[in-house]
Amino acid sequence: MKLDTSPEGLAEELLGRPFDQLDAEERAVLHRVCSGEVFGLDADERAAASASFGDKLADRVAAVGGSWAFIGSFVLVLFVWMVINSHVLEQLGFHPFDAYPYIFLNLMLSMLAALQAPVIMMSQNRQAKKDRVAARHDYEVNLRTTIELLRLHRKIDRVLSRLGHLENGNHAEPGRRE
């Protein structure tokens, strides 16, 4: 018995379902298995290849804005701002440019938050999209592996079956030698 190597035959024989009842992803995997096609770029490489300047900027802002270095330096800047505008400038005889209650500082912080939050959300959306692509890729790898294992299992079963027939044939005719 020869194994059908068409996508339709593999669907019936290995997955136990008609080809037209498979989802698009499973059909694509069967076509690639039959053609011997290998994968191209992985999810990260695909995302990097299609990333625009804005996408790269959003990823960079999210990477910097979500780090302890940013938090530490930001706290330091806020502390320096408050010290300069409360004590240092007054002792030097200058009028603080943003005295307590630091209205200009509040404005700058609000603007930073208003701009940084959507940029970080853009980066998170891109990461979620990459995760979905990676999950589809992993599913395809798993499905391909399963199909290949089933194919190998069937081939081994056929070989063992033929060996069994040979052994039975040799035992049936004891005077015959090969």
TrEMBL record:
<keyword id="KW-0812">Transmembrane</keyword>
<feature type="transmembrane region" description="Helical">
    <location>
        <begin position="99"/>
        <end position="122"/>
    </location>
</feature>
<protein>
    <recommendedName>
        <fullName>DUF1003 domain-containing protein</fullName>
    </recommendedName>
</protein>
<dbReference type="Pfam" id="PF06210">
    <property type="entry name" value="DUF1003"/>
</dbReference>
<keyword id="KW-0472">Membrane</keyword>
<dbReference type="InterPro" id="IPR010406">
    <property type="entry name" value="DUF1003"/>
</dbReference>
<feature type="transmembrane region" description="Helical">
    <location>
        <begin position="61"/>
        <end position="84"/>
    </location>
</feature>
<keyword id="KW-1133">Transmembrane helix</keyword>
